[in-house]
Automatic annotation (TrEMBL):
Stored Pfam families: DnaB_2, DnaD_N
Span list, region Disordered: 211-241
Similarity comment text for this entry: Belongs to the DnaB/DnaD family.
Every DnaD N-terminal domain range: 16-113
Protein name according to UniProt: DNA replication protein dnaD
Coiled coil: none
Domain of life of the source: Bacteria
Residue ranges of domain DnaB/C C-terminal in the record: 130-200
Length: 241
């Protein structure tokens, strides 16, 4: 058993990103091309600058011509690059690189993230339309739908920001888009881009208003003071002490 274990240790391991295994079909690779990538990359990781095609041919059970054909497909798909480089003595050798594969993988993940973000944004916009209709208690007119669409397409307001402006309109019992539009324009002039920034501004405004209402006026201060009776000492009778 110990010798068997040493056999596996001596064989060494090949490192491969799980992202490649999970997305090779999305990257346009067939199963044969994936196996060829593993074969070539394992030799590169082992320190070989030029892969042993005969060894790969035996491992995959294919003729050398088929292996070269598969390699050509990888080059066409910009997954594999074979560049000619010169050493210190001017001797030219081929250099194998899978940099293109990793670049395609990064581009794929970015595209998926963008698609997910756009889908989430679309849902948020749909929620805005529905929320306004619910608060207004009626269906939106075509003109109102166009106005809301312009908030997103031309003014580039975030759905969360529009939702917060809607909440402010409802709190003030004003149920029209003009009022919401004035709120959004006011925030834009104050360079407020996110709902978080708008929320901070609203909290500050309410604190200022609360402080203003709680501050007593000079008249109220006078009224709050207890009345002090005034005695005219000259009018006191002689019997008073």
């Amino acid at each position: 058993m110990e010798n068997d274990w040493e056999f596996f240790v001596d064989a060494k391991q090949v490192t491969i990103s799980s992202l490649i295994l999970a997305n090779y079909q999305k990257l346009g690779l067939t199963e044969e091309e994936l196996v060829l990538f593993l074969q070539i990359d394992s030799q590169l990781q082992a320190g070989k600058n030029i892969p042993d095609i005969e060894k790969i041919s035996q491992a995959m059970g294919k003729a050398s011509t088929d292996i070269y054909s598969l390699m050509h497909k990888l080059v066409e798909k910009k997954v594999l690059a074979i560049n000619t480089v010169s050493d210190e003595n001017g001797r030219e050798t081929n250099q194998y690189s899978f940099k293109g594969l990793y670049q395609k993988l990064v581009a794929l993940k970015r595209q998926e993230e963008m698609t997910t973000s756009q889908a989430a944004l679309s849902v948020s916009r749909a929620e805005i339309y529905k929320s306004i209709e619910v608060e207004f208690g009626r269906a939106l007119t075509p003109m109102e739908l166009q106005t809301i669409d312009m908030w997103f397409s031309q003014d580039h307001y975030q759905p969360e920001l529009v939702k917060l402006a809607l909440r402010e309109a409802v709190l003030n019992q004003v149920y029209n888009l003009r009022y919401i539009d004035r709120i959004l324009i006011s925030w834009e002039k104050q360079n407020i881009k996110t709902a978080a920034d708008a929320q901070k501004l609203l909290v500050k405004q309410r604190e200022v208003k609360a402080a203003k209402w709680s501050k007593p006026t000079s008249q109220s201060k006078t009224k709050d003071k207890p009345e002090i009776p005034v005695y005219k000492w000259s009018n006191r009778t002689e019997g008073e002490h």
